[in-house]
Amino acid sequence: MRKLLALLLVLSVAVFTVNPVQAQDGEEQPSAAEEMVDQAGEAAEDAAEAVEDAAQDAAEAVEETAEDVADAVADATTVTEGEEPTGFQVLKKNFIDGNWVFMSLVLITLILGLAFCIERIITLNLASANTDKLLARIDERLAAGDVEGAMEVCKSTPGPTASVLYEGLRRSADGPEAVEKAIVSYGSVQMGLLERGLVWISLFIAIAPMLGFMGTVIGMIEAFNRIEAVGDLSPSVVAGGIKVALLTTVFGLIVAIILQIFYNYIVNKIDGIVNKMEDSSIALVDIMASNNVFK
Question: Higher pLDDT residue, 17 or 224?
Fold first, then answer.
């Protein structure tokens, strides 16, 4: 690029130099103008040759880099004699050997299922709160007769437990029965929010092995079609078709097992939050009664 700019600069200087000379001397100095043009032409040819050489060198460098990258990828993904294949190489080989259509569907199921699981885990961890500390702060406010301050404590605390306690404190003027009714009603709402997304995780857990089984059935059909076309029940034909068919089932079951583990963890997390929420609700009613909030 720099050499090309230099070429353009030389040409422009030559043009602007020739024009004044011709304007002043007319036809008296044709040889000087021609000499300048010849020099500019020679400089242009030299610059063009330099640009061609630079482009050729860059192309050769790019080609060598591409070959090096290809060799590195080949070395990373191929197994040489005497070396044991790595886990990634085995996984890649089996993924390619299987029916790529169903293997891709199973992989998409795994990605979507893990996305829902990670979202639920993060949300539930943020929803977890220290209920003992929260109740202690509420007790301090109620002991001072500051119901509004207790409500502000609940409002400033994240999580479903604080939200349920806030609804109970908001109905404190209506008596204990109204408080309990508000806690139960709003607790059901928070329970639904905690379980949001679990139905999709359950769907992916059920779909993954089904896709694997479907791939197995289609693979067996293709194997029998191959046997029919060949006309010979050779072990190589039968074994190859059965291997491809069973790989989809293996991957589908692996996906279902992974998602099931996360699903059980999430359900256990939700149960723990709900239990704390129920205990805190009962403790709130007792704290309100001991501080004579109900009149």
Answer: 224
